[in-house]
Specification:
Elements lengths: L1 H18 L10 H6 L5 E3 L4 H9 L12 E5 L12 H5 L3 H8 L1 E8 L6 E12 L5 H25 L6 H14 L7 H17 L4 H10 L2 H16 L3 E15 L2 E16 L4 E12 L4 E14 L3 E19 L5 E22 L2 E9 L11 E9 L11
Parallel strand pairs: 1-2
Antiparallel strand pairs: 2-3, 3-4, 4-5, 5-6, 6-7, 7-8, 8-9, 9-10, 10-11, 11-12
């Protein structure tokens, strides 16, 4: 019996740890966060037509919302943007940043305890984007060089005057050496010559087929480089500002009522892509048997390395809580508690494998206004991700 209780206690602590460390971050999907639930089925439409279909499929034959479903959509990207320049995409102003990053979310979940249907609605957007790292410019230049090499190969492929492979190779090398925007590195020209010589021995004598094989030899390199560019585009440095909001509604016996709402604002400063400071402002309010309003201000620092990360965070809270109670004579009353509390913690995480990490957290949790309890914690645990959620970034 004692062993079983001990295991339950450890599991509870690890569940607490799961939310710790992300408390100062804006939730990726506010609607899911406000419900404390991630639906098994999440619709992520990428066109207006698909959005319409998904919305229609969210209702049953009686016109009621289907439970345990989620929706994430970024309205700006529901249609193609041919007039959006690369400069506007990579270096947007404030209004353009909000448009490009505004994400709407919704989720439904059925409460298995009281049978109520819960609806969560949320939004998230960036106001200021950070600056692109110098490494991004280096990778982008490398991609431009590869695209230039590819275009030169295509030119040779369609030029009927090249009746031998050697003539095509000499012409392409000459074009590459003369090109100035971008200037092709000598190492890339040498690499091209080596590829061409290797393929010349093993490919078809036909010049167009040879050029096709030559272009194909660059596909994997271009794909790998494109992935790194997209990754670097997301790893901006300097100052950034983002905000989010969410609300929860509960539907019982045909009536809908507001139950919970949250507002987040995060100011981040990335010294490098590995070092980040974050200041957080958050307002959380809930209404039910217990009504509460929490106003939080937090500050954190995180250092990311290849196999481990370290973070230190602190948050102060002004709270106001109203809850039912009995006075000394046994009469039902509503008790009001309002005060100030704080939380401070340090966390170390070491990656053992791709989905397995060893985590250590120590610190002090917020005081509980109802239980009048102060919680200090020291947690060592292993975090294992069964499902690794992937998000596709628009190219």
């Amino acid at each position: 019996m004692r062993t079983r209780n001990y295991l339950f206690a450890v599991m509870a602590l690890l569940l607490c740890y799961g939310s710790f460390g992300q408390d100062l971050r804006i939730p990726n999907t506010p609607a899911f966060s406000i419900l404390d639930y991630e639906p098994a089925s999440v619709m992520r439409p990428t066109s207006a037509k698909k959005l319409s279909t998904d919305l229609l499929n969210s209702f049953d034959k009686d016109g009621n919302l289907i439970m345990n479903m989620g929706l994430e959509v970024t309205p700006y990207w529901l249609k193609s943007r041919p007039k959006l320049s690369r400069e506007q995409y990579l270096h947007p102003d404030t209004f353009q940043t909000i448009l490009q990053t505004l994400s709407l979310s919704a989720a439904t979940v059925k409460d298995t305890v009281n049978g109520s249907n819960n609806l969560g609605l949320g939004l998230r957007f960036e106001i200021v984007k950070g600056a692109l790292d110098n490494q991004f410019k280096i990778l982008e230049n490398q991609m431009l060089q590869l695209e230039t090499i590819n275009s030169m190969i295509v030119n040779a492929k369609t030029d009927d005057s090249f009746d031998t492979k050697d003539k095509a190779i000499v012409a392409i090398v000459g074009w590459l050496k003369e090109n100035t925007n971008p200037k092709i590195d000598d190492a890339k020209i040498t690499d091209f010559q080596q590829r061409a010589e290797d393929l010349k021995k093993n490919s078809s004598p036909d010049v167009p087929a040879f050029c096709e094989a030559l272009a194909t030899s660059y596909q994997d390199e271009r794909k790998e480089l494109a992935g790194r560019i997209i990754e670097m585009e997301n790893k901006r440095i300097g100052f950034s500002l983002e905000a989010a909001a969410a609300s929860k509604f509960i539907n019982t016996t045909g009536s809908r009522s507001f139950q919970k709402a949250g507002f987040w604002v995060n100011a981040n400063y990335y010294v490098t892509e590995k070092d980040a400071w974050t200041a957080t402002a958050r307002l959380m309010t809930s209404r039910g048997d217990t009504t509460s309003v929490n106003s939080d201000l937090g500050f954190s620092y995180i250092r990311l390395e290849k196999d481990f990360n370290i973070s230190i965070e602190s948050m102060i809270r002004w709270y106001r809580t109203e809850f039912p109670d009995l006075n000394m004579s046994g009469t039902k009353i509503t008790r009001l508690e309002k005060s100030f509390t704080y939380r401070i913690a340090a966390q170390f995480s070491y990656t053992i494998a791709q989905d397995i990490s060893l985590n250590l957290s120590i610190g002090k949790e917020f005081d509980d206004p109802v239980l009048k309890k102060t919680a200090f914690f020291s947690i060592l645990g292993v975090n294992y991700s069964i499902f690794n959620r992937q998000f596709q970034k628009l190219n």
